[in-house]
Specification:
By secondary structure, this protein is of the alpha/beta class. The chain has 10 helices and 19 strands. The strands form 5 sheets. Strands 3-4-5-6-7-8-9 form a 7-stranded parallel beta sheet. Strands 1, 11, 14, 17, 18 and 19 form a 6-stranded mixed beta sheet that branches.
């Protein structure tokens, strides 16, 4: 069985580096099961390191983790449905709300419970996904009762192109967000994601929200990765086939040997999140030597050309590691490192180190 090692010490090191760079409160974004690496393990490690703010996507994610993160603020980025308001209040989760109808549901919950409830307001400055639009912000200006019974903890927005520093939209969003904040004097702000933390003083806020950088993905794609690698995926060679020139490998015979070749098969496939898009494009490492993926990735098996190397059944191929991490594998698959991490399957044997 393939072994997925997750270095919690590296996650904490990355968070501390980003927090020191930011100089203010720095959250941990642990949505999507900590980008596929295990929120139940990552969250407590960050808490022990001093992290006191956590962002999840869904209320259910926050509810599941609340017992493991005592005393921390847990916020649900994807807002609320009316049937969720009672559980949200009871569990002490802070909803991130970006529409007037959501504010109405949460305001009604506050009135029903006879207490002031915390809220994080999300404003749209260009993403056009979630967040209060200009007309809704105008409504809040005209009618302050729309926030009656609610305590605004933070106002946040999402950067669309933080990983591309020259993009003009970054400065436009900074200006627009500053203008929005005139409407909420004294309110705390939450602005930068991992990449945004490298954009400079205009993107500083009261609470940064790094996610990808915590898990070793490069927040500065045009430069060397400043973060420590977090994941290593090793898979044992199940079998080696000696194939002659002209022999094909895998479904559809999409790869044909141009020389006598040695083909190593590992028990990892697209059912494990090792993407089919890597067919005839991906690579692994054998004792730090790159070996090309040949043929198609199938559901449970993938083949690599180890010709000329002393590889034997039982030896390990490194599918993800410091020399060939999620960002590099993503380029081979035509995707992004986020998708590589969040696709990691449950059939791997997982080992947490560095805690």
């Amino acid at each position: 069985m393939a072994l997925l090692e997750i270095d919690l010490g590296a996650v904490v090191w990355n968070w501390r580096k980003l927090a020191a760079m930011h100089g203010g409160a720095t959250a941990g974004v642990i949505k999507a099961d900590a980008y596929g690496l295990g929120a139940a393990q990552v969250g407590p490690a960050l808490l022990a390191a001093g992290c006191r703010h956590f962002f999840l996507a869904h209320l259910a994610e926050a509810v599941a983790l609340a017992p493991r993160l005592p005393g921390a603020m847990l916020a649900a980025l994807n807002g609320l449905r009316p049937e969720e308001t009672g559980e949200c209040r009871a569990r002490g989760i802070v909803p991130v709300l970006g529409s007037l109808h959501e504010l109405g549901w949460w305001r009604a919950e506050a009135a029903a419970g006879g207490e002031e409830l915390p809220v994080i307001l999300q404003v749209d400055t260009g993403m056009a996904r979630l967040g209060l639009a200009a007309r809704e912000l105008a409504a809040l200006r005209e009618d302050r009762t729309l926030l009656q019974g609610l305590r605004v903890e933070y106002v946040l927005t999402h950067l669309t192109s933080a990983d591309a520093p020259p993009a003009p939209v970054n400065q436009r969003q900074a200006r627009d967000f500053a203008e929005v904040m005139r409407q909420f004097p004294g309110a705390k702000t939450s602005f930068a994601n991992s990449s945004g933390m490298f954009l400079g003083a205009d993107f500083a806020s009261d609470l940064a929200r790094p996610g990808a950088g915590l898990y070793g993905l490069n927040p500065t794609p045009a430069a060397a990765n400043p973060m420590r690698p977090v994941v290593r995926l090793n898979a044992p060679i199940l079998q080696i086939h000696e194939v002659e020139t002209g022999a094909s490998v895998g479904y559809g015979g999409s790869w044909v040997a141009r020389r006598p070749s040695r083909i190593a098969t590992v028990g990892v496939g697209y059912a494990d999140g090792y993407m089919r898009a890597l067919s005839n494009a991906g690579s692994a490492r054998f004792d730090d030597t790159p070996v090309p993926l040949v043929g198609r990735v199938s559901m449970d098996l993938t083949t690599f050309d180890v010709t000329g190397l002393p590889a034997s059944p039982g030896d390990m191929l490194c599918l993800l590691g410091p020399a060939h991490g999620p960002d590099e594998l993503a380029r081979e698959a035509g995707t992004i490192g986020y998708e590589i991490l969040t696709s990691l399957g449950r059939r791997y044997r997982r080992r947490y180190i560095g805690a």
